[in-house]
Amino acid sequence: MAKRVVTFEIFRHNPLDPDSRPRLQPFILEETPRMTLFTALTKIREDLDPSLKFDFVCRAAVCGSCAMLVNGKPRLACRTRVEELPDRTTLFPLPFFKLVGDLSVDTGTWFRAMGARVRSWVHTMEQFNPTLEERMSNEEATAVYDLDRCIECGCCVAACATAQMRPDFMGPAGLLRVARFVADPRDQRTSIDAFDVVKTDEGIFGCVGFLACHDSCPKNLSLATQLAYLRRKFMLTGIGIGKDGKNHHNVSQTVGLPAR
Ligand code: SF4
Ligand code: SF4
Ligand code: FES
C-alpha cells in the first residue's frame, strides 16, 4: 500500500532577528508506521531544515516540553499520532507564553512565577523529621498524587480564553496548584489563607467556566472538578464558612448554600 504523504505547515519566526517575519512554511513528509508528531518534526529537522526550533526532552508525555497548537488545539507532539491527523496540518507555538522561536516557547518562566505567586509548597510549623515520613490516609494521598500529576505543559493555559485576555490571570494550572495544597493534610494553611491567594478576578473569580482547559489537558487532570471545588469552597470561605465547616457569619442560609 502506498504510504500517505502529509503536509505540515509550520509557523516560523525568530523574535530575536529584526529581519524575521512570521510566516507558515510547508514541509512534505511520507508517513511511517506509528509515526508521532514528534518523530515527524525530528525528521523534518534532520532531513529538511536543521534550523527548525521545537522542544522535547522525554518523548513520553512526562516533561511537558513539546506542547504546541496542532490544527488550533493544544497538544503534546510526542503523544500525537500522525495517523490521527489530516493530510494537511498546521502547527503553531502555544499562545500566551513568550516565543523563543518557531514552535518553541518559554513556559518555565511563567510556571516558576506562578509557583511563587500561589506559594506552591507545604506550609507547616512541624519540625522536619528525615527518618519518619508523615502519615496521611490512602484517600488523602491519592487526592494529592492525582493533583500532582501536572507536567506543566501549558496546554490548559493556552486553551484558556481568560488567560489570553488578561496575562495576570493565574490560569487553570495555577488554580489546580492551589487545589493541590488545599488537599494536602500536611499544609497548615487555612481556607482563608488560600482564599486570599485566589479571591480576585486574577484568580478563581476570573474563570468563566467554559472548561476549554479541562478538554485540553493531556494528562486528563480533573480541572473541571477542581475549578468547581475551588469556586464553591472559596465562595463559602468568603461568606464566612471556615475550615471546620461551621458558618461563622451565619449567612450561608441567606444565600441557600449548604455548610460543609
Ligand atoms: S474554565 Fe476557567 S480556567 Fe478553564 S479555560 Fe475556562 S476560564 Fe480558563
Ligand atoms: S493541568 Fe494539564 S494541561 Fe495544564 S499544565 Fe498541567 S498537565 Fe498541562
Ligand atoms: S517530549 Fe516530554 S512531554 Fe513530549
Structure write-up:
- There is one protein chain.
- The chain is of the alpha+beta class and 260 residues long.
- It folds into 2 domains: 101 residues, Beta-grasp domain (Ubiquitin-like (UB roll)); 149 residues, Fumarate Reductase Iron-sulfur Protein, Chain B, domain 2.
- The radius of gyration is 22 Å and the shape is elongated.
- The C terminus is likely disordered.
- It binds iron/sulfur cluster (SF4) (2 copies) and FE2/S2 (inorganic) cluster (FES).
- The site of one iron/sulfur cluster has 13 residues, from helix 5 and helix 8.
Assigned CATH superfamily of the largest domain: Alpha-helical ferredoxin
* CATH topology type of the largest domain: Fumarate Reductase Iron-sulfur Protein, Chain B, domain 2
- Per DSSP E runs of 2 or more residues, the count of β-strands stands at 7
- List low-confidence stretches: 247-260
- Provide the structure class: alpha+beta
